[in-house]
Amino acid sequence: MQMIKGRAYKFGDGINTDVIYPGRYLSITTDREEMAKHCFETVYPEFLKTARAGDIIVGGKNFGCGSSREQAATCLKYFGIGAVVAESFARIFYRNAINLGLPVLVAPGVTRVVDHGDDIEIDLDRGMVKNTRTNETVESTRLPSFILEIINDGGLIKHLRKKLGLSNK
Amino acid sequence: MVLGSGSQNKHPMGKNQMTIAEKILAKASGNDTVKPREIVTAQIDVAMSHENADVVLRAFREIGIEKVWDAERIVLLFDHRIPAESEKTAATHQRIRMFVKEQGIKHFYDLNEGICHQVLPENGHSRPGDVLVGTDSHTTTHGAFGTFATGIGATEMAGVWATGELWFMVPESMRIKISGDFNKHVSAKDLILSIVGKLGAAGADYKAIEFSGETISNMSIASRMVLTNLSMEMGAKVAFVVPDKKTVDYVRSRTNQPFSTLLPDQDAEYVEDLDINVNDLESMVACPHSVDNVKPVAEVAGMRIDQALIGSCTNGRLEDLASAAEILDGKQVSPGVRLLVIPASRRVYLEAVRKGYVEVFIRSGALVLNPGCGPCLGAHQGLMAPGEVCISTTNRNFKGRMGSSEAFVFLASPATVAQSAIAGEITAPN
Ligand code: SF4
């Protein structure tokens, strides 16, 4: 059973990938730590000052809409974001996050029960999100087992290596 | 003409009627039928990447396989940052060129061909009935040829390079039928903007869209691509124009590869059915900072502009340049306005030179840039300063998309952009 705990960092609806990771940094293709220095930089510069590793991003509808740039998921993962929980996701961001081993949960109603700064707890297996300040919970859609497996393996690359019989260190 | 018959995949009892998306995924996953929400593993026919092949490459190396699954099915090119705007990008280009050599990638277009979503169709890589994945969100564009085409991330592309397959959830399908005739200077861009405005930025999330109807039958291939291109901005996973003779002729003239033109069954199930008539449609514009913030141009007319941009994978094709040239012919771009024109590909550029459009642009005071993405993604060439306003034929107007996060981008048709460039303010063509 996997539990993820962290402080909620809350955003509104329609947070797009240009906002999460500005196009001007797309020339950074390999240095993941460097990508992490630019999360939300142009539109929400305060994120880089106030967010901490281990925070859980709580988003509204259509989180991650826009381009397919994987940097948008990578920068959050390498910033240390523990998970992203949102009312709904745009599909490419959602897949990218899973492939990088960043847990993403669709939890309708989450923006109602969680405020910015609340401590929350995610039960990945049962598909539950709990606000530990108020004890309110919302259900999240449970991830199909093969997706959970990719996340638990630490992302698609490690998952494929395992499947192909290559060692994972 | 033989269009791969719609009955081929039918269940003997006439059940399990399928949409195009379902048919292609059934074929690609080796099933007789598939249903929405089912998860299938599909064989990939074409795997496309541009500069972000660099990210794919690193992930591919991490998987630890020596050779890609099929060097003939991978298409690589440069379009996003060409010519290299920085040393970093130059190194990216260099690494990819080396990889192409090392792996014997057969279809590689260097930085002189143009935007992926134009170059692939021009070279016969976008074919009906195929599954085409690209590390670019506007890969939906290729659905204009009846291709199941969708954007994926770099890491999963590395998985495709390694294994040639990928999981998909079978999308629900919606059908949009278009009827009527466009008014003069009103085009596919105005139509799709009005649809995005109606349905919203998440209006087609995860879904497959099928465009059909008399207006679509009469539409050029280029205009059809505008519809499937912008369908991405409603969240669509894939968008198709139901293939017809025009599609087959176009593809046939560009490739010898076999393909099967899969059509939807008559009683296939759709979660939504829309009928739209374009007789009264006027010129539309998407206002800052979201693509679904759509209004008739008349409502924002008079807004002063600093930059006007004609180009991109949405509207950088020959008919777009023709429509702009018709309006700009013999006119001058308003002083203080920068008009940038960016042909979508080298072939489009050459045709535009032959037809005299380029001369019209240059005489009018426009700056004609090399084929590619240009400022569309805010990486280089023609970025915006704080407070500036741009009217553009591209497909995204997010905050900070084209430079400063305090700039404003309006999206419109080539005709509207050309007219606005002359007027110095947002103006509908008439
Ligand atoms: S023109 Fe713009 S939207 Fe199209 S592929 Fe290039 S960057 Fe993406």
Automatic annotation (TrEMBL), chain A:
Keywords: Amino-acid biosynthesis, Branched-chain amino acid biosynthesis, Leucine biosynthesis, Lyase. GO terms for biological process: L-leucine biosynthetic process. It catalyses: (2R,3S)-3-isopropylmalate = (2S)-2-isopropylmalate. InterPro entries: Aconitase/3IPM_dehydase_swvl, AconitaseA/IPMdHydase_ssu_swvl, IPMI_Swivel, LeuD, LeuD_type2/HacB/DmdB. The keyword Protease does not apply. The keyword Amino-acid biosynthesis applies. HAMAP family: LeuD_type2. PANTHER family: 3-ISOPROPYLMALATE DEHYDRATASE SMALL SUBUNIT 1, 3-ISOPROPYLMALATE DEHYDRATASE SMALL SUBUNIT 2-RELATED-RELATED. This is 3-isopropylmalate dehydratase small subunit.
